[in-house]
Amino acid sequence: MRLLRHGRRGALFALVGGIALVAAGCSSNDNGQNSLKPAGRNAQLIFDLFIPIVIVAAVIGVLVVGATVIFAIKFRHREGKNENPKQIHGSTPLEIGWTIVPALILAVIAVPTIATIFKIAQEPQGQVLHATVVGKQWWWQAQYDKQDKVSGTNIDKTVVTANEIHMIAGVPLKIDLKSDNVIHSFWIPMLGGKQDVIPGRQQHITFYADKPGTYKGACAEYCGLSHANMRMRVIAQTKADFNAWMKGQQGGPAQPWTGEIEKLTGATFACTNCHVFNDSSKAPYGPNLTHLASRTTFAGGTYELNRKNLVGWILNAPGDVPMQSKDCRLPPPATCVGMPSFTKNTPPGNYPVMTRAQAEQIADYLLAEK
Ligand code: CUA
Within 6 Å (CB) of ligand 1, which residues are found? Predict the structure, then answer.
């Protein structure tokens, strides 16, 4: 009896604790990645499908769990009574019944589901902005190629940027998704569902953003050490703001990349093996840094772009984000994914160690690169 009372109290605690945990999961829904707050057509289509299916699933869940609990109590073992329940194994009508009913429910749910899949895959109509996004380890490269009259002006020069994808509110953005390494998954919850990004294939996703805003997302397919640091954001802007941004991106570097800074990032530390500092139309191995200062984040969208974060990153990037970059400063065929440390794990040989003053000099140059 004592034991039973303990058991009941334990179960009550577990129930209350469970409900509290579930409720806590809903408390902070302001992280910019809430698929229950759709911000455009495709996200809305998914949401409109999700709600009725959740209701159907909830009704079935309550019925099944309720019946389980009721039967467990009603037919529990009783002292002195030891009769077997009626055996129904092999009952043809029952077997047919509980096969057909779920099949029918799934068949009914399939109708709006398939219709939604087709609607989401529809070619966007009217004015469409195009971009190519490439999944990297571990960041996203975004490229806008030449295109006519999207936002009143022509995009007449290729622009390559990273992790922050700009679009125009009210104008669909059609993205060609590619990967040149492993499988990633592109997901901006408030704008739509996930799309796997598969090496050797070209996938597509279309975003519609009703209003200007910043919509956050993250890679949704495990892709190696820093999968959890592979974030991105879609920034929907007014036409005027987008045009101003695009014009800035198409321009050359804000300050000449010559002299001391060229030597530092070129001959001395070989940043240029992976980065480009003075031409936003190029797609190097690492992020194009020509207009780094126009972004709000860096390192796969993980860190806020400011001087302190950037200096620390330049000195010892693998200390901020896990990477397989121990051998990055060795000549090929060294295996290398990510950005090397210029202070720790410097490989043996004639590889200079970076001083804080040098890192600050590079950071100050980059932070002026609007
Ligand atoms: Cu890319 Cu996970």
Answer: 135, 138, 184, 219, 221-223, 227, 230
